[in-house]
Amino acid sequence: MSASRTAFRLNQFSRQFARASPIRRPHGRRYQTTEATPPPPQSTLQRLWNSPVGVKTVHFWAPVMKWALVLAGVSDFYRPADKLSLVQNLALTATGAIWTRWCFIIKPQNLLLAAVNFFLGCVGVIQVTRILRWQQSVKNGTVAEVAQENAEDAAGTAKGIAKNPEAAAKNALQ
């Protein structure tokens, strides 16, 4: 028997089995009857409570707590730029940019988290700009030169930590 003949018989058998099956799939679409009643309208508080990103979920409370980082960054606007950490503010900028994008990808989309991360990135960009401009004014160089020096300094620090983490920890405590 040829392969095509075998396939034809298998197809015929599966059709007969499907017709003889006690559980049949409905043909066409199922429509909702007019007898169904819509759910009762909910108040604003009920919708907030029952939402997938509502008050009783971590999707609500995590962004609320993260606003503390944004407020801390805003309070640093009043500090002198020489007292600010470039690495810390670069981390805030990267965190804000990465997580803002991620908030639109995940399900459920969390717009509250996207907003807090966007503002966290904005605060980080402002602080990094302040730090680089202050370093430029002190060294009388361009912003690109100052940024390059900072990158080399951070790379040297990372290499030192990788070589001898115990000594790096002791130096950090002093």
Show the helix and strand layout.
Layout: H1 3-20, H2 44-50, H3 58-75, H4 86-105, H5 111-139, H6 143-163, H7 165-173
Give a written overview of the molecule.
The protein is mainly α and 174 residues long. It has seven helices and no strands. It has helices at 3-20, 44-50, 58-75, 86-105, 111-139, 143-163, 165-173. Helix 6 (143-163) crosses helix 7 (165-173). The protein starts with a helix and ends with a helix. The model has no long low-confidence stretch (mean pLDDT 80).
List keywords for this structure.
mainly alpha, single chain, 174 residues
Estimated structural class: mainly alpha
SSE ordering: HHHHHHH
Q: What about the largest sheet? A: none
Helical content class: over 70%
What fraction strand? under 5%
Radius of gyration: 30 Å
Number of helices: 7
Low-confidence parts: none
Distance between the termini: 86 Å
Mean pLDDT: 80
Give a short synopsis of this structure.
This protein has 174 residues and is mostly helical.
